[in-house]
Amino acid sequence: MKLMSMIYNRLFKLLYWPICRAYAQHVLRDKPADTIMQIFCSLDFWHVHGYWPHFRNPRSFSEKICSRMLFDRNPRWTMISDKLRVRDYITDTVGSEYLIPLLWNGENSEKIPFDELPQSFVIKANHGCGYNIIVKDKTRLDQASVILKVKKWLEENFCLDNRLGIAWAYKAIRPNVIVESFIGDNGKVPEDYKFLCYSGRVEFIQMNFDRFGDPYEKFFDRDFNPLDLWQGTKQYPGKVARPNNYEDMVRVAECLSRGFDFIRVDLYNVGGRIYFGELTCYPAGGIVKFIPRDYDFIFGANWQQDRFFKNDIIR
């Protein structure tokens, strides 16, 4: 059974996903999904979640994420998904004091000024997910390898080159390299607080520990009570103390989420200081299972989704 599952997954990755991406790129372009694309995505969704989705009348959280990806073509998603442009939104909404200091940015990885950077820093690309290099000790850094790796990032279109090709928000972002200060404590990456905000109100929190090492996660409700929920990452085994400035974190998250029917606001809390991480409109791309499945529908029920599609016309 395990071998068959591995073969099935491999076939999806090597054959099915490229077909979907080609259809999205060359047939749909920037239009909302048609019936064919919905069928493509429904089969992939069923393969991941084990139930057939209803993208036009979504009920679960995962269905609603995918529905947004398939139909919503509001340019605001591109703005808030661009890790460079979103800094202006943060400054205008809650203030620049919540931003991680920007050390450098540019469009050419060969121009990263390594000699001018501090001992520790973080290199990112602004146009997708997973583009991160944590540099804790510059003296041990292979600069040539970093330059090549970042160059490869910049040549990718995160939407068109990944999975089904439906992460539309990233499609038109102009690739850029970002170098930020490392805000960890004693070389340790800080815990990541992900606030799930519905119509401007925090309802759930996902915490991630040691994301770039031995990752753990933990879910909480709005009052920071732990939830018995698993999404494939090991559950943090110990007790998690509620931050002393938790109410301030909620306030910042809710300010940043105003005007969105749903958005995930990622924050850090280092030495009692709150830093902005990112705004996420497609958490996990809708392809991470909720165990137990009931939570997929509980998280979805809180989301009063904007009706952004009608007869495949862009809003």
What's the helical proportion of residues?
A: 25-40%
Strand residues, percent: 15-25%
Give the C-level CATH assignment of one domain: Alpha Beta
Shape call: globular
Structural class: alpha+beta
Cα radius of gyration in angstroms: 20 Å
Low-confidence stretches: 309-315
Compressed to H and E, one letter per element, the order equals HHHHHEEEHEEEEEHEEH
* Biggest sheet details: 6 strands, antiparallel
Strands in their spatial order, largest beta sheet: 8-7-6-5-9-10
Q: Explain this structure to me?
A:
Residues 309-315 have low confidence and may be disordered. The longest helix is centred in the N-terminal third of the chain and has 27 residues, at 2-28. Strand 2 (121-125) and strand 3 form a beta hairpin. Helix 1 (2-28) packs antiparallel against helix 2. By secondary structure, this protein is an alpha+beta fold. The protein has a domain at 99-183: Dna Ligase, domain 1 (2-Layer Sandwich), CATH 3.30.1490. It has helices spanning 2-28, 35-49, 61-71, 76-81, 86-93, 143-154, 246-257, 294-301; strands at residues 102-106, 121-125, 132-135, 177-181, 192-198, 201-209, 216-221, 226-227, 262-270, 273-280. It contains eight helices and ten strands. The strands form two sheets. Strands 8-7-6-5-9-10 form a six-stranded antiparallel β-sheet.
